[in-house]
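lol ok so funny story. i was supposed to be doing the assay writeup but got distracted and ended up predicting the structure for this chain instead. priorities right. anyway since i did it might as well share w the group, maybe its usefull for someone
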Amino acid sequence: MNQDTSPRLTELNAEITGCRACPRLVEWRERVAREKRAAFRGEEYWGRPVPGFGDTSAKVVVLGLAPAAHGANRTGRFFTGDRSADFLVASMYRTGFASQPTSTHIGDGLKLRGAWISAAVRCAPPANKPTPAERDACLGFLRRELELLEAGVVVCLGAFAWDAALRLLRVRPKPKFGHGATFELEGPMLLGCYHPSQQNTFTGVLKPEMLDEVLRAAHDKAGRLR
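and the output, tada:
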């Protein structure tokens, strides 16, 4: 397990965090970081594009949609400091991918084992809805990330991440997203999973055991790749 980024991943992460390609996203992420949420008034927000993190020898990539405005856009690490993080990382802990069941802030001691967490879009978007052009502007970062990691399995959290991964792989026609959906042709295997947003977890659309099942499948698949 190696949490230190390789030189090429370090270079990629520097490019990601310095990106200002999408004016709408730049304006929004920086405005949120200035205005802040009342509960986090005393904190300094990250307010920049968010790089991936985890085990650099990982064969499993957990792919989200984009940074949450007051989650990763605040903390600087995907799925850190919000309810979605609580739900996802607890499952990753139960399934052997995480060293602890919580992800609250950088420096909290969280280590990932055999997994890397990333997202289709690196900046927090207004209303959590990136445009197709913003998605496409970020795909080059994801392509390079998957190549450097030599990822074998991508767990797509939600339809947006599923569509982005298929676009990256240039798959036509696109297989339909669904919880537990799988796709494997050339490149990494894709596993579909409902996003651990409050909209899904509070309503029971996504239950802990459902997420555990998908992550265990990813774990088993990755084990056969080694």
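Strands lie at 53-54, 60-64, 115-119, 153-157, 182-183, 189-193. Helices lie at 7-17, 23-35, 72-75, 83-94, 132-149, 159-169, 198-201, 208-225.
back to the writeup now i swear
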